[in-house]
Amino acid sequence: MLMLALSASTHAADASAQTRAVTQDPTTGSTQTPSGPADQSRAEPRPVPRYALTIYGGQDAQALFGGPVDLEPVPGHAIVHEQRSVEVGSGAGTLTLHGFPRYLDAAALTTTLSQGRVLSQRFDAEPLRSEILLQRNLGRQVTVEQHLAGELNVLTGELLSAELPLSLRLADGGLISINDYSRIRMPAPATPLSAVPQLRLGVEAAQAGRQTLGLIYATSGLAWRPEYVVRMHPGAACRLDFAAHGRVVNRSGHSFADATLKLIAGEPWQSDSLPAAARGGDHSKASAQAASYRFASTLDLPDGSSQQITLMPEQRGLDCRRELLYAASNASTSSQRVPQTSPGHHGASRSVSHSVGFHLVDDIALPPGRARILIEDGRDGTIEFLAEQPLPGHHPGQRLDVGIGAADGLSGERRMLDLDIDEDDLGLTEKVRIRLDNGTGQDAQVRVREHLWRWRQWRLVDASHGHQPFDDSSIDFLVEVPANASATIDYGVHYRWNRDLR
Predict the structure, then answer these.
(1) Can you tell me the mean pLDDT for 46-55?
(2) At the top level of CATH, which class does the domain 130-185 belong to?
(3) How far apart are CA 466 and CA 478, in angstroms?
(4) d(CA 268, CA 290)
(5) What residue ranges do the domains of the chain occupy?
(6) E strands of 251-344, at which residues?
(7) CA distance 83 to 80
(8) By the 8 A CB rule, do 213 and 113 touch?
(9) What is the three-class DSSP state of 421?
(10) Are 444 and 438 in contact (CB under 8 A)?
(11) Domain with residues 321-359+399-502, CATH architecture
């Protein structure tokens, strides 16, 4: 998994978050909330949160970029480091805090006090919908009001059902079913209700005073994805500008102001029963290739926002080379956890495209993303949209290829001729034929890119044409296709894996 990091200095933020300190009287055991003029005279400025966010990307979070989602669980994943200044009483007491994402993962919440102890923690984030309030009042006395024939009908009884039709047990023991009502009056709740997510911490401190509360928690509803822009220059010479952006979306139910960010491409790694060799390959190598992007200032991430941030300075005037490219698919071994032994092939496109190939100036890694290709009209300087396509992940020093449109009169076809799985089930050999057809009336040179997608350990056993590596799991053939004729590539590849992967 490629990793992309972005960092910046941390500043105070979100002064609207509320913190309420409750101290416990050790002699009576009762809780007391500071109030009244005496407390107000000692009031200090409202504590200000500080945020440092690690936001993950991944295909599971793509729904967040289309607007509000009605999904359970909400996609996206982020880790939040937050610091707050809180007032704590001496002895044991309770802190009640607001200003959290609604989708905070309470099971992964870590809290620390700079000069005290956190004894317990409870996170309440359930939205106060009518059906939830009714559910909480099952078995309690409620009053239901109905308007029937212009008159008000009032019924009081024990609530037995929270869904329509409501069921009440009346004082005489009789039961009544209610299909329609105007209003329900419910008794005061045993504990106060909060319309916004709140965190209640049981704390203990040797002396009263202001302390720093550190929080680390995971939340969904936050995600990012890379987006790239390639702008072609006009004229016969092949030159272009390349820009890399990250689109960050926040639908967590909470705003983060002046936040530092770290963006990681891909989903959080989770342990499973597979051995280390099957969990994403050589992690040390991937880590060494990770690219970091730093900002001089922090960013605001309002709830409901979708914004674009610059991942790297735009690279302008890059030399490029125009080619014809045929790639049957963009399949990759980067996300494969086990060898792929099915006869089918990912994609199997027939389109040959016009392509431009180039190298970035900086030796950096880029995660897979979406690329938009623009072209400048040399006559009036206007920018026009040319194409849009997925951009595979880029390793340092690797060539980048982007398609700029289909090549008329050229097509390709990939067929699997044979698939032979070893008797010991520790490998397979695949034989492939690629046919290129040229109906343009002119000779053409086509770069054929084959992604060896079945497993990361492979070797070519036979090939009808010379080839060169493109990356760890792909090879390129340069093939001359005569005018109004065809050309064929035959090759075999042997994949091998360890016994514990099957």
Answers:
(1) 72
(2) mainly beta
(3) 8
(4) 15
(5) 1-124+193-319+368-398, 130-185, 321-359+399-502
(6) 256-264, 291-294, 299-301, 306-319, 321-327
(7) 10
(8) yes
(9) strand
(10) yes
(11) Sandwich (2.60)
